[in-house]
């Protein structure tokens, strides 16, 4: 095997990529990544258990699969790509855990029959690469210093079975916590997550907890029992149209649920508390945005104490459950037309890896009370994303139907509200948003809101939201008549 060296034939403009597997699939993948800069991945070398392999496509073989942590650390690896068809899931889990310890994301080629008979592997990577979709290269967000926030500490994740929560658990688990407590109200999600992390899922471990964040007494009981030092609060309702129809449920989960968890955390002496928010909280026009903005206010109301609190604000997360890409795959796969609300609608996009990296970095950076926002570049037109995605999947003649903006939806999102001050942080691509502290009667306003939600008084909840959060001004979306059913133009 070649000795470790930082001198590699890597370009400076891509994510430093380590390929696991120097067989035919790995060689073909390295070839495509070297040829096509648009993938955004720069291969720097391989891992392979065959000691006779020393150099492949002019790239070094750094060691065996068991050397992934050592190599990823020494070579400053951003992405680990698994290029061994049929690699056992236990090996996949070990590699992913080791990579996560240095903040590297893990991608894998799809397991499909006849991979070695195919000459082109880059097209398979396209479904994993998102640079063309989000209009920028994916960013390696979490710094190596994050490990000091996690290592040997008891970490609790709410909403652990969701898309963001489960990725948080995977990456936190890789940073060697003293204990990882996974909380969710859905037992099936916990079963799936425990199986993925540990290779077995008997659900008899004290580290998986079924509980509802709406139950304040239960939250206090759990915090007292487990005494976590770090809490990542990912549990929430997130579908905008659903909450427009059921605003009381949004308040119960997103505002009062956050309040319950945070109060219990503060009472039990949690050191750091991070709540996940959304860009829809900036000058909100929807119930989702308003409830998340109030959750941010709840965080600010608890700043200045022994528990260091912060929030992180996401754009749209590609690949999460219910997000755009799974919907597109389902519609295209069934040969249906693709539905988009408006021909000019734009959104900020980020990958799950970026989102979780932002959460972990926020836990490290925070001094208390901030809302952190990732620099996500320019917003992307949905029609352009659909076009690029269809090309990557080799789907011709995509038909689009424009349905019109829905209640509460914006044509364009903002990362910061007009009343917020944006300030830099120690991370060059992460910014902070600082708003005025909550009003003196904030607790009374919340109490009235919670009471209306408890009585399921939807109209009163909307008015109470506007009263507790003056920037909230509901702007009903308008349905547009059908604009086009024509095949998607190639020049979009």
If you had to describe this structure to a student in words, what would you say it looks like?
InterPro entries: KR_dom, NAD(P)-bd_dom_sf, Polysac_CapD-like, Polysaccharide_Synthase-Rel. Belongs to the polysaccharide synthase family. This is Polysaccharide biosynthesis protein. The chain is built from 17 helices and 21 strands. It is an alpha/beta fold. The protein has a 9-stranded mixed β-sheet, sandwiched between helices. Helix 12 links the parallel strand 11 and strand 12. The protein folds into 2 domains: 115 residues, NAD(P)-binding Rossmann-like Domain (Rossmann fold, 3-Layer(aba) Sandwich); 325 residues, NAD(P)-binding Rossmann-like Domain (Rossmann fold), CATH 3.40.50. It is globular and about 70 Å long. Helix 11 runs parallel beside helix 12.
In CATH, the homologous superfamily of the largest domain goes by the name NAD(P)-binding Rossmann-like Domain
In DSSP terms (H or I, runs of 4 or more residues), the helix count works out at 17
Low-confidence stretches: 2-12, 111-130, 477-492
CATH architecture descriptor of the largest domain: 3-Layer(aba) Sandwich
Please, how many domains? 2
Described by its quaternary structure, the protein is: single chain
Secondary structure category:
alpha/beta
Tally of strands = 21
CATH class group of the largest domain: Alpha Beta
Average pLDDT, all residues: 82
Strand order in space, largest sheet: 9-8-7-10-11-12-17-21-20
Strand content: 15-25%
3D shape = globular
Main sheet summary: 9 strands, mixed
């Amino acid at each position: 095997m070649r000795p470790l060296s930082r001198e590699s034939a890597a370009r400076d403009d891509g994510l430093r990529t380590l390929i696991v597997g120097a067989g035919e699939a790995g060689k073909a993948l390295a070839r495509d990544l070297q040829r096509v800069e648009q993938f955004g991945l720069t291969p720097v070398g391989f891992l392979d258990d065959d000691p006779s392999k020393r150099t492949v496509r002019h790239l070094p073989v750094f060691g065996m699969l068991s050397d992934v942590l050592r190599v990823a650390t020494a070579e400053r690896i951003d992405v680990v790509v698994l290029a061994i068809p049929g690699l056992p899931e236990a090996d996949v889990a070990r590699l992913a855990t080791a990579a996560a310890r240095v903040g590297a994301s893990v991608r894998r080629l799809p397991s499909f029959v006849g991979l070695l008979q195919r000459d082109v592997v880059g097209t398979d990577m396209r479904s994993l690469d998102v640079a063309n979709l989000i209009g920028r290269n994916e960013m390696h967000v979490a710094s190596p210093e994050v490990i000091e926030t996690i290592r040997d500490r008891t970490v609790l994740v709410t909403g652990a079975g969701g898309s963001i929560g489960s990725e948080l658990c995977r990456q936190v688990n890789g940073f060697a916590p003293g204990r990882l407590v996974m909380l969710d109200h859905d037992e099936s999600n916990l079963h799936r997550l425990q199986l993925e992390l540990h290779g077995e899922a008997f659900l008899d471990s004290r580290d998986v907890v079924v509980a509802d964040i709406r139950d304040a007494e239960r939250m206090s009981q759990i915090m007292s029992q487990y005494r976590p030092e770090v809490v990542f609060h990912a549990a929430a309702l997130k579908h905008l149209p659903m909450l427009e129809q059921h605003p009381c449920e949004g308040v119960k989960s997103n505002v009062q649920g956050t309040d319950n968890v945070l109060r219990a955390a503060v009472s039990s002496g949690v050191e750091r508390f991070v709540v996940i928010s959304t860009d829809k909280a900036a000058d909100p026009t929807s119930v989702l945005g308003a409830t998340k903005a109030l959750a941010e206010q709840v965080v600010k109301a608890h700043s200045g104490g022994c528990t260091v609190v912060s929030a992180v604000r996401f754009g749209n997360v590609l690949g999460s459950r219910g997000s755009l890409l799974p919907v597109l795959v389902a519609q295209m796969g069934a040969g249906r037309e693709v539905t988009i609300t408006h021909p000019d609608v734009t959104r900020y996009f980020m990958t799950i890896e970026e989102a979780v990296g932002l959460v972990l970095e926020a836990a490290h950076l925070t001094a208390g009370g901030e809302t952190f926002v990732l620099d996500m570049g320019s917003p992307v037109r949905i029609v352009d994303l659909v076009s690029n995605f269809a090309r990557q999947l080799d789907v011709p003649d995509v038909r689009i139907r424009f349905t019109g903006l829905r209640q509460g939806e914006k044509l364009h999102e903002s990362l910061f509200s007009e009343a917020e001050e944006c300030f830099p942080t120690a991370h060059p691509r992460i910014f902070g948003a600082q708003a005025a502290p909550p009003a003196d009667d904030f607790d009374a306003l919340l109490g009235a809101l919670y009471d209306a939600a408890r009585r399921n008084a939807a109209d009163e909840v909307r008015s109470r939201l506007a009263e507790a959060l003056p920037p909230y001004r509901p702007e009903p979306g308008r349905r547009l008549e059908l604009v086009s059913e024509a095949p998607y133009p190639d020049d979009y």
